[in-house]
Amino acid sequence: MNNIYAIIFDLDGVICSTDRYHYLAWKALADRLGIPFDEQVNSQLRGVSRMESLEIILGNHSGEYSEQEKLALAEKKNEIYRSYLSAMTPGDLSKEVRMTLHTLRQRGYLLAIGSSSKNTRQILNQLGLGDFFDAVADGTQITKSKPDPEVFLLASSMLGVSPENAIVIEDAESGVQAAKAGRFRSIGIRSDGNDPMSDITIKKLSNLTEIF
Fold it and tell me: What is the CA radius of gyration of the chain?
C-alpha cells in the first residue's frame, strides 16, 4: 500500500484476546454488588474505557455510588482482571500473529500498539512482546478513550510518522471511528469479512501479509 510506513495495532482482539478475562472480572464485581451481568451486557463494553464500562454495568444504580467509590470499584475490577492476566504466557500468542508481526517487521514497517488499556504493558510482557514494538501508546498515557483518536495520534507521534502515512488495525467499531477521526486509514478485522466503516476489511491478521 502506497505511502504507508507504519502500522498501528489495537491490542485486545487484534494481537491477542483477553475478552474472557474482562468478562470474568466484571462478572465477579457485579456479583459482589448484586447487579445482574451477562454476555449481553458485556457486549456493550466492547472498545470503551473502564470507567465507561462501569457506568454501563451500574446502570440505574450509578447514582448510589460516589465518584470515589466508582474509582475504587474500577480498580477492584482491574485487580481481579490482572490476576487472570498473570497466567498468560508467550504460548498464548498465536503462531499466526507472531509470524505476521515478524513478516511485517522484516518488510521494513514501523510497528506500534495503540490501545486504551492501562494493562497493555503487562499483557505485552506476558506474551513475550515487551520489547518488540517500535512504540506503545496505551491507557496510562491518554485522557480520552476511543472513539477519540488520542491514542492513535500519540502512537504515530512516537513513531515520528504523520497519520497519512500510518494505518490502524482494529476489530472494534469505536477503534475504527477513532482512526477516521485522526485521519488514519484503517483495516477492520471481521470474521465475516464485512466492515463498511473500514477502508479495507480482512478476516484474520495474517491477511495483512497479502496487503503489505
Answer: 17
